[in-house]
Amino acid sequence: MAKEGSLIDNGIALKLLINRIPAQKRKVIFGLFASAIFVLTIALLSGGIVYGGRSFLPISRIDVTEIPNMERADILTRAGIKNQTYWTLHEAQVKTNLLAIAAIKDVEVGKYFPDRLVIKIEARKPVAMIISRTGNTGLLQYIDETGRVFEKGRSASNMYLPLITDPAMQTPYAGYQCIPSVTALMRRMSSLSPDLLSHISEIEIDWKIAGSYKFDLYDLIVYIRLSSIKVRMRAELDDAYISRMLLAVKTVEEDPRYLTNEIDYRSNDPVFIPQGGGFR
Q1: Domain residues of the chain, as ranges?
Q2: Cβ–Cβ contacts within 10 Å for residue 151, how many?
Q3: Measured distance CA(11)–CA(18) in Å, rounded
Q4: Which of 142, 180, 252, 263 can bridge 126 by disulfide, Cβ–Cβ 3.0-4.6 Å?
Q5: What pTM was computed for the model?
Q6: What is the pLDDT, as a whole number, of residue 157?
Q7: pLDDT tens-digit profile of 39-63?
Q8: Are 121 and 107 spatial neighbours (Cβ–Cβ below 8 Å)?
Q9: What string of DSSP letters covers 148-192?
Q10: Are 57-123 and 126-273 equal in CATH topology?
Q11: For the domain bounded by 126-273, which CATH number is listed?
């Protein structure tokens, strides 16, 4: 009972003490007290205070869109995610880190209280392959419809894509952006039937040159998969054009009267080049 009485007496004494403080000063004191509580709360939630060696509200659930040429662990490492809390992880920085990966076209990052992170990735879709040379070695890379070169990766698809060769192109490292005229070719190729495109093993860009001035125009020299025949074509590719070209190639292969392995198909009618009189 003495203890209870002491608490009551102490409470009354504190109240009397507070009442003796001028009203204006009381407002200042209460304001400072509220600010201190607010700062303490923020420090706690931001992980500034740890309990048992663990930060408060760590990110423990991470949902990541799978992409064909990168492992989940690689994505998280490149994103810079490591032991952050809900409050210390910044979505904008994660997005910036991931967009630095050439194989990623776009990213959406969202945090969900108290411990969840969602990363939605739009991967680049390959329309062709290209060889990136380092010294005497070559590395296959992909190109998408925007003309961006990116890594083929370890778990890449086994889809049949044509190889693009361009003697004028600089070393096409991952992240390399093709010039607009080559990018236009990639856009056209992205709209082609994959089945038709699978018949083509290589497309060589053959630039037209007038004197010392190179026009931004080119023909395509197309090499047919499992065939010795190559075809010169216009750059304006579409399904109907490729279908007619493949029919012309089949005609040459099946008719022994055609002593040629080269066809000029830039006009509406194919021109069969006699052996020894090629267009190169």
Answers
A1: 2-45, 57-123, 126-273
A2: 20
A3: 11
A4: 142
A5: 0.73
A6: 54
A7: 566 655 544 444 444 456 889 899 9
A8: yes
A9: BEEE--TT------PEEE-TT-----TT-B--HHHHHHHHHHHTS
A10: no
A11: 3.40.50
